[in-house]
Structures are given as structure tokens and as C-alpha cells.
Amino acid sequence: MTIDYYEILEVSRDSTGVEIKKSYRKLAVRYHPDKNPNDKEAEDRFKLINEAYDILGKDEKRQIYDQYGKEGLERQGAGFHANNMDDIMDVFNSMFGGGFSGGFGGQGRQRDPSIKYALDFEVALDLPFNEAVFGIEKEITIDYKVPCDTCNGTGAKDGNMETCGYCEGRGQVVMRQGFMSFAQECPKCQGSGQSAKEQCSTCSAEGFIHKEQEIKFNIPAGVDTGNRLRVAGHGNENRQGQRGDLYVSFSVEEDEHFVRDGSDIYIVVPTFFTQCILGETITIPSLNGELELHLKSGTKDKEQFIFKGEGVTDVHSGRKGRLIAQIKMVLPSKINDEQRELLEKIQESYGVESSPHKNSFESAFERVKGWFSG
Questions:
Q1: Full-prediction pTM beyond 0.70?
Q2: Which of 10, 24, 116, 309 fits as disulfide partner to 207, beta carbons 3.0 to 4.6 Å?
Q3: Residues 155/116, Cβ–Cβ less than 8 Å
Q4: What's the angle, vertex CA 334, arms to CA 328 and CA 336, rounded to 5?
Q5: For the chain, what is the domain count?
Q6: What is the pLDDT of residues 132-158, one digit of tens each?
Q7: Inter-residue contact 330 to 270 (CB < 8 Å)
């Protein structure tokens, strides 16, 4: 079966490197084995996606692949290798989150043994692209847990408890896997060693009830998908009235034109071929309004122009990244007779320069002739 790497990454053959990377990150997160446990089809798909990006994400390999296919890569020893660590961490952080100091990240506090739930908890929040880039004050409604007053948080009617029959009061059970044994918290009593004689009717033996609260907090400029923000004192409540912390994990929506890579922003600039040949100053959008892009005469397809300090604020350092404008040369889809005549005149005016294939293949033609003349 012939493998089409472009089809695997769901991109076209004229896609830019930015578009390829964007599609890779999206697909790698979707098919990652940790999100699809015991799914062999997803695992195989994930391997193919990484293989495809290893080729198409590197200019030299992509050029060989475009000309000679996968066989050409194998002949030149440019086989498949694991993608670089930045790309792998992008996918990892998209799935599991990336912690930051100054209110971000954190592992959460140890569990309070007097209650049947963790004090800290996490909520997911979708952010529009612009709110993540510039920061915003958000107001959301959270649902948090407080101990049930009827059973004093035990989950038992009148608070009457007995020894847990599953772990025999030890609070732990021993699990065996092959030749290895390890202890873990008892799933029935959550490590307390006790269970309810009779269930509490108020909380259905949960040991807690739910409360709602509206809270406001500031989201700093520059957060990205996978980041977590700690909102202190807005977690679940224990028997003493103390509350844990709330962790807000972000999922940032993609923008129609801007593609984010950390603190850098990429934008693809469609440019007519005559603009690239002749050179022209054009206006392009930026995060802060407009920028002037000076196309020099002879600008190449996929050439990049860098604007420092026009990217996203880094939540660590406060420094701004770059805006990188990548040219996408546009050719006319059709031409009329007048345009054809003009183009033919231009081609003739360049002489031998307008037929580079002739000089390039001259020696090849001579060698081929020699093969048959003898």
C-alpha cells in the first residue's frame, strides 16, 4: 500500500510549514494513545502521523519526498526518526498541561484524610484566541464540595461507621501484577479503613454536597492551551471550613489567520507572483493592528519576514515574541489571449535564462545518448 504523507496529515501538497505543523499538533493530540487506551487503530494512526511529520516538517526531507517519494528517502538514508523535543512537548502539554510559576501549575496539596474528596480540583475553560493573547478578567460559576452536615462528612447515617470489609481496616489493598506486588489506597473507603454501617440519605453516602459560586479572576496575557492557572482559596471545603485551590486549565481556540507557536505568531501572506517578482509594499494584519511588509524584488515562495516584538507576551518573562509573515505565492488560475502574449514576450526577453531545464539536463541528455550509441 502506498503511503501519502500529505493525506495522513490532512494537508495539501502546497501547504506551508506552518500549516503542516498546525495540522500535526491537532492530529497528534487527537490520536495520542493516552487519549485512546486499548485502541490499536488510534495507536497505529498516531505512529503514521509522527512519521509523516518527521518527513514533511523538515524542508530537505520534504523536497526529496516530493520528487522521489518514500523510496527516494530510503535510498538516501533519510528514514524516519522521532520528532524533535519541542514538537513532542507541544503535544504533551496540549494533553496534560504545562505548569508555570507565579500562580500557574502546581501539583495540588495532599489529600485531607478527614474528608472523602480532594480539596483542590480543576475546571476546563475554553478561551477565544484574542482573550488568551491579551489577557482578560473572567467570571465563571464553579461547583464545589462541602462536607455533609447530616453525617459530618462521613457518608454514614448518624455518623456510625464500621471497619471496612474490603481492606479489613488497613486502608490499603495489595495488588499483584505478574511477579510484582504493590499497595494502593482502598477504593472502597478511600484509605480511611472505615465504611458506613448505613448510608446517609442526605448525601447518598458521598459525604459531601455541592454548592455553586460565581468567582472572578484575572487571566494574564500569553496563556496557551494546556496551561493551568491556580486560583487560591476557591477549591473544595473541609470540615474546618478551609478551602483548597481551584486550577483552571485552558484550551485556546484557533484563529482564522494567526497561527501561534509559543510566543511567536505566524501568518500566511497570499501574494500574487508579479508582486514577488517586482517587489511591493503591502499592508498585513498584526496582533496590534497593521504592519507594512516590504517585498523585495525577487521574493521567493515560502520566504519569511520577521517582525520582532510583534508576537505574544511570554507568561514567564513578559517579553514578546515575533510575528513571522510567510509568503504564499499565488499563480493565476487562467489567462486570456492578451495576457498570454505578454507573458510569452517576457519569457522571450530572458533568452536562455527562461529555460533553466535545458542547462540543468544537458549533461544528462548526453549520458543517455551515450548509453545507446555504443
A1: no
A2: 116
A3: yes
A4: 135
A5: 3
A6: 999 999 999 999 999 998 888 888 877
A7: yes
